[in-house]
TrEMBL record:
Recorded family membership: Belongs to the mitochondrial carrier (TC 2.A.29) family.
Protein's membrane topology: Multi-pass membrane protein
Chief location of this protein within or outside the cell: mitochondrion
InterPro entries reported in the protein's UniProt record: MCP_dom_sf, MCP_transmembrane
Pfam family, one: Mito_carr
Keywords recorded for this protein, A-Z: Membrane, Mitochondrion, Transmembrane, Transmembrane helix, Transport
Protein name (Swiss-Prot/TrEMBL): Mitochondrial carrier protein
Mapped Solcar repeat ranges: 1-87, 135-219, 227-317
Length: 321
Protein backbone atom coordinates (compact mmCIF):
# COMPACT_ATOMS: atom_id res chain seq x y z
CA UNK A 1 0.00 0.00 0.00
CA UNK A 2 2.83 2.39 0.90
CA UNK A 3 4.67 1.50 -2.33
CA UNK A 4 1.56 2.26 -4.38
CA UNK A 5 0.98 5.54 -2.54
CA UNK A 6 4.52 6.77 -3.11
CA UNK A 7 4.41 5.74 -6.77
CA UNK A 8 1.07 7.45 -7.38
CA UNK A 9 2.04 10.70 -5.67
CA UNK A 10 5.35 11.04 -7.52
CA UNK A 11 3.79 10.10 -10.87
CA UNK A 12 0.95 12.62 -10.75
CA UNK A 13 2.78 15.57 -9.23
CA UNK A 14 5.83 15.25 -11.49
CA UNK A 15 3.79 15.09 -14.69
CA UNK A 16 0.96 17.48 -13.74
CA UNK A 17 2.10 20.34 -16.05
CA UNK A 18 1.85 18.06 -19.10
CA UNK A 19 -1.60 16.92 -17.95
CA UNK A 20 -2.70 20.57 -17.68
CA UNK A 21 -1.68 21.18 -21.29
CA UNK A 22 -3.56 18.05 -22.42
CA UNK A 23 -6.71 19.11 -20.56
CA UNK A 24 -6.71 22.58 -22.11
CA UNK A 25 -6.27 21.13 -25.59
CA UNK A 26 -9.16 18.70 -25.12
CA UNK A 27 -11.65 20.92 -23.27
CA UNK A 28 -14.46 22.61 -25.16
CA UNK A 29 -14.86 26.40 -24.94
CA UNK A 30 -17.62 28.61 -26.35
CA UNK A 31 -16.87 30.46 -29.63
CA UNK A 32 -14.86 33.62 -29.04
CA UNK A 33 -13.30 32.32 -25.82
CA UNK A 34 -9.50 32.38 -26.04
CA UNK A 35 -9.45 28.75 -25.00
CA UNK A 36 -11.35 27.74 -28.12
CA UNK A 37 -8.13 28.24 -30.16
CA UNK A 38 -5.98 26.11 -27.90
CA UNK A 39 -7.21 22.77 -29.24
CA UNK A 40 -5.84 23.75 -32.66
CA UNK A 41 -2.50 24.95 -31.29
CA UNK A 42 0.75 23.06 -31.03
CA UNK A 43 2.12 21.72 -27.78
CA UNK A 44 4.69 24.52 -27.57
CA UNK A 45 2.09 27.23 -28.26
CA UNK A 46 -0.22 25.92 -25.55
CA UNK A 47 2.65 25.83 -23.05
CA UNK A 48 3.60 29.40 -23.92
CA UNK A 49 -0.01 30.57 -23.58
CA UNK A 50 -0.45 28.97 -20.16
CA UNK A 51 2.78 30.46 -18.80
CA UNK A 52 2.07 33.92 -20.24
CA UNK A 53 -1.46 34.12 -18.85
CA UNK A 54 -1.20 32.21 -15.58
CA UNK A 55 2.53 31.96 -14.90
CA UNK A 56 4.31 28.75 -13.95
CA UNK A 57 1.75 28.25 -11.17
CA UNK A 58 -0.93 27.82 -13.85
CA UNK A 59 0.67 24.55 -14.88
CA UNK A 60 0.05 23.18 -11.38
CA UNK A 61 -3.57 24.23 -10.87
CA UNK A 62 -5.48 21.31 -9.34
CA UNK A 63 -2.35 19.40 -8.33
CA UNK A 64 -3.46 19.33 -4.69
CA UNK A 65 -6.56 17.31 -5.49
CA UNK A 66 -4.82 14.68 -7.56
CA UNK A 67 -1.85 14.35 -5.18
CA UNK A 68 -4.19 13.73 -2.25
CA UNK A 69 -6.24 11.24 -4.23
CA UNK A 70 -3.18 9.44 -5.54
CA UNK A 71 -1.55 8.99 -2.17
CA UNK A 72 -0.36 12.01 -0.23
CA UNK A 73 -1.92 10.62 2.96
CA UNK A 74 0.07 7.42 2.78
CA UNK A 75 2.09 8.00 5.93
CA UNK A 76 -1.02 7.94 8.10
CA UNK A 77 -1.46 4.27 7.22
CA UNK A 78 1.83 3.44 8.94
CA UNK A 79 0.16 4.07 12.29
CA UNK A 80 -2.75 1.72 11.60
CA UNK A 81 -2.75 -0.41 14.79
CA UNK A 82 -3.95 -3.64 13.15
CA UNK A 83 -1.33 -3.86 10.44
CA UNK A 84 1.09 -5.79 12.68
CA UNK A 85 -1.42 -8.64 13.06
CA UNK A 86 -1.09 -9.59 9.42
CA UNK A 87 1.80 -11.17 7.52
CA UNK A 88 4.12 -9.17 5.30
CA UNK A 89 1.76 -7.91 2.55
CA UNK A 90 4.46 -8.37 -0.07
CA UNK A 91 5.65 -11.81 1.05
CA UNK A 92 5.43 -14.34 -1.80
CA UNK A 93 3.46 -11.85 -3.89
CA UNK A 94 0.61 -11.84 -1.37
CA UNK A 95 -1.27 -8.67 -0.52
CA UNK A 96 -3.87 -9.77 2.06
CA UNK A 97 -2.56 -7.43 4.75
CA UNK A 98 -2.68 -4.52 2.35
CA UNK A 99 -6.19 -5.41 1.20
CA UNK A 100 -7.38 -5.48 4.83
CA UNK A 101 -5.86 -2.09 5.57
CA UNK A 102 -7.39 -0.60 2.45
CA UNK A 103 -10.87 -1.86 3.35
CA UNK A 104 -10.70 -1.24 7.09
CA UNK A 105 -13.34 1.43 7.94
CA UNK A 106 -10.98 2.93 10.54
CA UNK A 107 -8.52 3.65 7.74
CA UNK A 108 -11.10 5.42 5.56
CA UNK A 109 -9.37 8.83 5.56
CA UNK A 110 -6.07 7.17 4.64
CA UNK A 111 -7.06 5.10 1.58
CA UNK A 112 -5.09 6.61 -1.27
CA UNK A 113 -6.49 5.43 -4.58
CA UNK A 114 -3.18 4.27 -5.98
CA UNK A 115 -2.43 2.29 -2.84
CA UNK A 116 -5.68 0.38 -3.21
CA UNK A 117 -5.13 0.06 -6.95
CA UNK A 118 -1.78 -1.66 -6.60
CA UNK A 119 -2.96 -3.74 -3.63
CA UNK A 120 -5.86 -5.19 -5.61
CA UNK A 121 -3.65 -5.66 -8.67
CA UNK A 122 -1.08 -7.70 -6.72
CA UNK A 123 -3.79 -9.83 -5.09
CA UNK A 124 -5.65 -10.43 -8.36
CA UNK A 125 -2.45 -11.24 -10.24
CA UNK A 126 -1.52 -13.80 -7.58
CA UNK A 127 -5.05 -15.26 -7.57
CA UNK A 128 -5.14 -15.57 -11.37
CA UNK A 129 -1.67 -17.06 -11.62
CA UNK A 130 0.16 -14.09 -13.03
CA UNK A 131 3.21 -14.74 -10.82
CA UNK A 132 3.99 -18.07 -12.48
CA UNK A 133 7.00 -18.53 -14.72
CA UNK A 134 6.54 -17.46 -18.32
CA UNK A 135 4.38 -14.82 -20.00
CA UNK A 136 0.81 -14.33 -18.75
CA UNK A 137 -0.60 -11.20 -20.47
CA UNK A 138 -4.25 -12.28 -20.06
CA UNK A 139 -3.91 -12.81 -16.30
CA UNK A 140 -2.09 -9.52 -15.73
CA UNK A 141 -4.59 -7.66 -17.94
CA UNK A 142 -7.52 -9.10 -15.95
CA UNK A 143 -5.83 -8.19 -12.66
CA UNK A 144 -5.31 -4.64 -13.87
CA UNK A 145 -8.97 -4.33 -14.92
CA UNK A 146 -10.15 -5.51 -11.49
CA UNK A 147 -7.99 -2.88 -9.80
CA UNK A 148 -9.21 -0.17 -12.18
CA UNK A 149 -12.89 -0.55 -11.28
CA UNK A 150 -12.16 0.29 -7.64
CA UNK A 151 -9.52 2.92 -8.38
CA UNK A 152 -11.77 4.88 -10.76
CA UNK A 153 -14.59 5.04 -8.22
CA UNK A 154 -12.20 6.91 -5.93
CA UNK A 155 -10.32 8.95 -8.52
CA UNK A 156 -13.16 10.16 -10.79
CA UNK A 157 -14.36 12.88 -8.36
CA UNK A 158 -10.74 13.93 -7.80
CA UNK A 159 -10.07 14.07 -11.52
CA UNK A 160 -13.22 16.10 -12.14
CA UNK A 161 -12.12 18.76 -9.65
CA UNK A 162 -8.55 18.74 -10.99
CA UNK A 163 -9.59 19.25 -14.61
CA UNK A 164 -11.95 22.09 -13.80
CA UNK A 165 -9.14 23.86 -11.97
CA UNK A 166 -6.85 23.34 -14.98
CA UNK A 167 -9.12 25.12 -17.47
CA UNK A 168 -8.14 28.48 -18.88
CA UNK A 169 -10.25 31.11 -17.16
CA UNK A 170 -11.30 28.63 -14.48
CA UNK A 171 -13.90 30.25 -12.20
CA UNK A 172 -12.50 28.44 -9.15
CA UNK A 173 -9.96 29.92 -6.73
CA UNK A 174 -8.64 26.50 -5.81
CA UNK A 175 -9.51 22.89 -5.09
CA UNK A 176 -11.79 23.51 -2.10
CA UNK A 177 -13.60 26.36 -3.86
CA UNK A 178 -14.21 24.08 -6.85
CA UNK A 179 -15.65 21.37 -4.60
CA UNK A 180 -17.98 23.83 -2.85
CA UNK A 181 -19.24 25.41 -6.06
CA UNK A 182 -19.75 22.08 -7.81
CA UNK A 183 -21.80 20.81 -4.88
CA UNK A 184 -23.81 24.02 -4.60
CA UNK A 185 -24.65 24.49 -8.28
CA UNK A 186 -24.57 20.98 -9.78
CA UNK A 187 -24.91 18.53 -6.92
CA UNK A 188 -22.98 15.36 -6.19
CA UNK A 189 -23.62 14.04 -9.71
CA UNK A 190 -21.09 16.54 -11.09
CA UNK A 191 -18.27 14.56 -9.49
CA UNK A 192 -19.30 11.28 -11.10
CA UNK A 193 -20.57 12.50 -14.47
CA UNK A 194 -17.75 10.79 -16.35
CA UNK A 195 -17.45 7.61 -14.25
CA UNK A 196 -18.89 5.32 -16.93
CA UNK A 197 -16.70 6.93 -19.57
CA UNK A 198 -13.67 6.68 -17.29
CA UNK A 199 -14.31 2.97 -16.78
CA UNK A 200 -14.84 2.34 -20.48
CA UNK A 201 -11.56 4.15 -21.18
CA UNK A 202 -9.48 2.83 -18.29
CA UNK A 203 -10.44 -0.84 -18.48
CA UNK A 204 -8.84 -1.29 -21.94
CA UNK A 205 -6.13 1.22 -20.99
CA UNK A 206 -5.17 -0.74 -17.89
CA UNK A 207 -5.51 -4.09 -19.60
CA UNK A 208 -3.02 -3.02 -22.27
CA UNK A 209 -0.83 -1.11 -19.82
CA UNK A 210 -0.38 -3.90 -17.28
CA UNK A 211 -0.09 -6.73 -19.81
CA UNK A 212 2.46 -4.83 -21.92
CA UNK A 213 4.44 -3.89 -18.80
CA UNK A 214 4.65 -7.41 -17.39
CA UNK A 215 5.35 -8.95 -20.80
CA UNK A 216 7.98 -6.37 -21.76
CA UNK A 217 9.63 -6.69 -18.36
CA UNK A 218 9.96 -10.47 -18.68
CA UNK A 219 11.20 -10.24 -22.26
CA UNK A 220 13.80 -7.63 -21.31
CA UNK A 221 14.85 -9.67 -18.28
CA UNK A 222 15.23 -12.72 -20.51
CA UNK A 223 17.70 -10.83 -22.65
CA UNK A 224 19.49 -8.86 -19.93
CA UNK A 225 19.32 -11.21 -16.95
CA UNK A 226 18.18 -9.71 -13.63
CA UNK A 227 15.24 -7.33 -13.35
CA UNK A 228 16.89 -3.95 -12.93
CA UNK A 229 15.48 -0.46 -12.49
CA UNK A 230 16.36 0.24 -16.12
CA UNK A 231 14.24 -2.70 -17.24
CA UNK A 232 11.30 -1.46 -15.14
CA UNK A 233 11.60 2.08 -16.50
CA UNK A 234 11.75 0.96 -20.15
CA UNK A 235 8.88 -1.51 -19.76
CA UNK A 236 6.78 1.03 -17.88
CA UNK A 237 7.34 3.79 -20.43
CA UNK A 238 6.51 1.48 -23.33
CA UNK A 239 3.32 0.29 -21.64
CA UNK A 240 2.16 3.77 -20.71
CA UNK A 241 2.75 5.24 -24.17
CA UNK A 242 0.98 2.44 -26.05
CA UNK A 243 -2.07 2.45 -23.77
CA UNK A 244 -2.35 6.25 -23.80
CA UNK A 245 -2.27 6.55 -27.60
CA UNK A 246 -4.95 3.91 -28.21
CA UNK A 247 -7.44 5.32 -25.69
CA UNK A 248 -7.11 9.05 -26.56
CA UNK A 249 -10.62 9.37 -28.13
CA UNK A 250 -12.23 8.11 -24.93
CA UNK A 251 -10.06 10.49 -22.90
CA UNK A 252 -11.39 13.39 -24.97
CA UNK A 253 -14.96 12.32 -24.18
CA UNK A 254 -14.09 12.05 -20.47
CA UNK A 255 -12.52 15.52 -20.41
CA UNK A 256 -15.52 17.06 -22.17
CA UNK A 257 -17.97 15.52 -19.69
CA UNK A 258 -15.93 16.47 -16.64
CA UNK A 259 -15.42 20.09 -17.67
CA UNK A 260 -18.85 20.68 -19.20
CA UNK A 261 -20.57 23.51 -17.37
CA UNK A 262 -17.40 24.90 -15.79
CA UNK A 263 -16.81 27.89 -18.09
CA UNK A 264 -20.00 27.72 -20.19
CA UNK A 265 -23.48 26.18 -19.93
CA UNK A 266 -23.42 22.38 -20.00
CA UNK A 267 -23.26 21.26 -23.63
CA UNK A 268 -23.69 17.52 -23.25
CA UNK A 269 -27.07 16.51 -21.89
CA UNK A 270 -26.19 12.82 -21.74
CA UNK A 271 -23.30 11.22 -19.87
CA UNK A 272 -23.23 8.10 -22.04
CA UNK A 273 -20.09 7.55 -24.09
CA UNK A 274 -21.45 6.86 -27.57
CA UNK A 275 -23.93 9.78 -27.77
CA UNK A 276 -21.24 12.20 -26.59
CA UNK A 277 -18.69 10.74 -29.00
CA UNK A 278 -21.13 11.02 -31.92
CA UNK A 279 -21.94 14.63 -30.99
CA UNK A 280 -18.25 15.56 -30.96
CA UNK A 281 -17.67 13.94 -34.37
CA UNK A 282 -20.82 15.50 -35.83
CA UNK A 283 -20.02 19.04 -34.66
CA UNK A 284 -16.21 19.09 -34.83
CA UNK A 285 -15.07 16.22 -37.01
CA UNK A 286 -13.16 13.02 -36.28
CA UNK A 287 -9.93 14.94 -35.66
CA UNK A 288 -11.45 16.35 -32.47
CA UNK A 289 -11.24 12.90 -30.89
CA UNK A 290 -7.45 12.97 -31.19
CA UNK A 291 -6.91 16.37 -29.63
CA UNK A 292 -4.23 16.27 -26.96
CA UNK A 293 -2.72 12.95 -28.07
CA UNK A 294 0.85 14.33 -28.00
CA UNK A 295 0.77 15.64 -24.42
CA UNK A 296 -1.21 12.56 -23.35
CA UNK A 297 1.46 10.19 -24.67
CA UNK A 298 4.25 12.48 -23.40
CA UNK A 299 2.55 12.37 -20.00
CA UNK A 300 2.11 8.63 -19.78
CA UNK A 301 5.53 7.49 -21.03
CA UNK A 302 7.58 9.10 -18.23
CA UNK A 303 4.69 8.88 -15.74
CA UNK A 304 4.35 5.13 -16.16
CA UNK A 305 8.13 4.69 -16.09
CA UNK A 306 8.42 6.70 -12.86
CA UNK A 307 5.38 5.01 -11.32
CA UNK A 308 6.51 1.45 -12.01
CA UNK A 309 10.13 2.19 -11.14
CA UNK A 310 9.10 3.76 -7.82
CA UNK A 311 6.60 1.01 -7.05
CA UNK A 312 9.01 -1.85 -7.71
CA UNK A 313 11.81 -0.09 -5.79
CA UNK A 314 9.56 0.58 -2.81
CA UNK A 315 8.44 -3.06 -2.78
CA UNK A 316 12.08 -4.15 -2.58
CA UNK A 317 12.82 -1.63 0.16
CA UNK A 318 9.81 -2.73 2.22
CA UNK A 319 10.81 -6.36 1.77
CA UNK A 320 14.27 -5.52 3.04
CA UNK A 321 16.02 -6.38 -0.24
Amino acid sequence: MIAGSVAGTIEHTAMHPVDTIKTRMQALHPPGHSGSMISRSSLREVLRTVVQKDGLAGLYRGVGAVAAGAGSLLFASVNEPRISRFPDPFADGCCWGTIFLALNPRALPHRPAHALHFAIYEWAKEYLGGHREGLHPVETAAAGCAATVVNDALMTPVDSVKQRCQLEGSPYRGVMDAIRQMLRHEGIDAFFKSYRTTLIMNVPFTAMHFSVYETAKKLLCHGLGDETLRVQLVAGGLAGGCAAAVTTPLDVVKTRLQTSGATDPAKYEQTAVLPTLRQIVREEGVQALWQGIKPRVLFHIPAAAVCWGTYETMKNVLRGN
